[in-house]
């Protein structure tokens, strides 16, 4: 009799453990996903994040919450994701600046490349070489000639030391053989106001705001390998004979290191389908971005390319930010 009671107790205990553990796992994978955006609300990246959250949520049948954690060049938001539980419920809308440049520039950073798992590449965008129309320069060749004749450095706007625009300016100076001096701004709008007013000579921001101010600004080239079909009248840097100026800045999804592979695969598939959606593609085009959807391997390749490309510029110029 005692043995029968004992067996019943063990069976009940095992059954209870199964009932307890299975819903816990299901609950973990059924919680809302938090998509951390390392920028303030209201910007372009925030708009993309909300479209992405809607698409991923629809594909996975889950609620996706966008959480803005801006500040410190993306470090605050990226750090929070690096510390999060690797259960597939926290994602980072990462990019060239918050991930690659921060890691390569800042030795005391609280995260490294290895702090994240790649989930999905989303899109990237070209830079421009733009001058004010008042400069009287209409081509790259004329710009180089002007810069060599001027006898003093040309001024180019950046988003601060170590930003994509700052580093790109260093590549441009070396390639063209002309002296350039970086001028840091809080945002690109301020830089464009000064550029249009003739208080600057060059800017490398994305093409859309430049085209919107075409009366005062002239795009000389895009940092692409071939002409962008959305901007057919603008030559590419490769077309002009400057392949070393080809570059872009990317946006992708990352997760805390150790996130289960099957969850990464599911989220990557949902993100890829969302980016390929016609409505998302239309918004990309409106903002001068190019869809580049792909899984973890595509993002891994991009991160390795950044190590080589931006790492070389940073090392050559001995740039360290503490």
Automatic annotation (TrEMBL):
Q: Please name the Gene3D superfamilies in this protein's record.
A: Bordetella uptake gene, domain 1 (3.40.190.150), Periplasmic binding protein-like II (3.40.190.10)
**Keywords in alphabetical order:** Receptor, Signal
**Stored Pfam families:** TctC (PF03401)
Q: Please list which residues make up the signal peptide.
A: 1-26
Q: Which SUPFAM superfamilies does this one have?
A: Periplasmic binding protein-like II
Q: Which PANTHER family match?
A: BLR1237 PROTEIN, TRICARBOXYLATE-BINDING PROTEIN
Q: Tell me the protein family, please.
A: Belongs to the UPF0065 (bug) family.
Q: What is this protein called?
A: Putative Bug-like extracytoplasmic solute binding receptor, TTT family
Q: What is the lineage of its organism?
A: Bacteria, Pseudomonadati, Pseudomonadota, Betaproteobacteria, Burkholderiales
């Amino acid at each position: 009799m005692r043995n029968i009671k004992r067996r019943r107790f063990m069976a009940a205990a095992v059954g209870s453990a199964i009932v307890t553990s299975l819903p816990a796992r299901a609950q973990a994978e059924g919680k809302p996903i938090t998509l951390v955006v390392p920028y303030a609300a209201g910007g372009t990246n925030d708009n993309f994040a909300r479209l992405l959250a809607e698409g991923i949520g629809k594909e996975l049948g889950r609620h996706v919450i966008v959480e803005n954690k801006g500040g410190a060049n993306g470090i605050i938001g990226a750090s929070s994701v690096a510390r999060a539980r690797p259960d597939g419920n926290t994602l980072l809308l990462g990019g060239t600046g918050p991930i690659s440049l921060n890691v390569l520039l800042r030795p005391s950073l609280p995260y490294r490349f290895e702090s994240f798992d790649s989930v999905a590449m989303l899109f990237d965008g070209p830079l421009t070489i733009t001058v004010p129309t008042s400069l009287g320069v209409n081509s790259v060749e004329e710009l180089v000639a002007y810069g060599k004749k001027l006898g003093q450095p040309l001024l180019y706007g950046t988003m601060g030391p170590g930003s994509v625009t700052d580093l790109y300016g260093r590549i441009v100076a070396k390639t063209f053989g002309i002296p350039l001096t970086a001028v840091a701004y809080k945002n690109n709008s301020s830089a464009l106001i000064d550029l249009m007013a003739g208080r600057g000579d060059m800017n490398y921001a994305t093409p859309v705001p430049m085209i919107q101010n075409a009366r005062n600004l002239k795009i000389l080239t895009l940092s692409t390998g071939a002409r962008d079909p959305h901007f057919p009248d603008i030559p590419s840097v490769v077309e002009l004979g400057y392949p070393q100026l080809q570059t872009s800045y990317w946006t992708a999804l990352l997760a805390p290191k150790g996130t289960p592979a099957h969850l990464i695969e599911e989220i990557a598939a949902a993100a890829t389908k969302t980016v390929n959606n016609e409505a998302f593609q239309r918004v990309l085009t409106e903002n001068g971005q190019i869809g580049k959807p792909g899984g973890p391997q595509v993002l891994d390749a991009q991160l390795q390319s950044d190590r080589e490309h931006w790492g070389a510029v940073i090392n050559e110029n001995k740039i360290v930010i503490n």
